[in-house]
Amino acid sequence: MTRNDTRFISGTEVIWVGTILILLLGVLLVSRLQQPGDDDGSAASGHSGAWRPLPVDEQRFLARAQSLIDRYAVEDDEGRLVTKPPPGTDLYLVGELWKWWPTYQLEQGRSYRLHLSSIDWIHGFSMLPELEAVPVLPGYEVVVALIPRLAGVRTITCSEYCGVGHEEMIGTLHIVRSTGAEVVDDSR
Ligand SMILES: [Cu+2]
Predict the structure, then answer these.
(1) Pairing between β-strand 90-96 and β-strand 54-55 as defined by DSSP bridges
(2) pTM of the model
(3) What kind and span of H or E run contains 27?
(4) What DSSP element (H or E) covers 32?
(5) CATH homologous superfamily of domain 34-176?
């Protein structure tokens, strides 16, 4: 037996374990990014194939979200800002440690194009049952078709672990019936 054999961990072993870990992380990341949007029969998915993150300028994305707020935001009964763009509007939703903004009010059964991006970290957009684990990435946007199926104050959660505030990264979409402004909650 040589001296090397008696060492606790050899350099070669460290390299092998490291390589395998990196490969596993790579496979995990690629499979996340290629998650198909409409294989689950979701009514929200108006496109075919994988999510496609496209490079986006962060300042332009933020400006678009802000301009929707400037144009359509009103205060609700509790003094919170709710942004109410008409059906068909391109929506810009920002994921950020640890919140989602703006808060939109949308009409049930109408279709919207939802643009998602992050300004800091990798997040994931989930609003079940319409959309699950859509990647929300800094420097990229993912555009998905959203047709809200259930009325009510709907919860957006983050599907990618993003630090100590991950569990509290909750946003809301207010979904109203298209005939009026009354919120009828049948989402739970
Ligand atoms: Cu997150």
Answers:
(1) unpaired
(2) 0.70
(3) helix 11-33
(4) helix 11-33
(5) Cupredoxins -  blue copper proteins (2.60.40.420)
Ligand 1 mean position to 133 CA, how many Å? Answer: 11
Parse the chain into domains and list their residue ranges.
34-176
Give the torsion sign (CA, 167, 169, 172, 173): negative
Question: Tokens standing for 55?
Answer: 């490079």
For residue 147, the CA-to-ligand 1 centroid distance in Å is: 23
Ion ligand 1: residues, Cβ under 5 Å? 123, 158, 162, 169
Q: Helix, strand, or coil here: 15?
A: helix
CA distances to 23, 55, 68, 187 from 181, rounded to whole Å, are 51, 36, 19, 16
CA of 77 to the centre of ligand 1 (A): 28
Structure confidence by residue, pLDDT tens digits, 82-112: 999 999 999 999 999 999 999 999 999 999 9
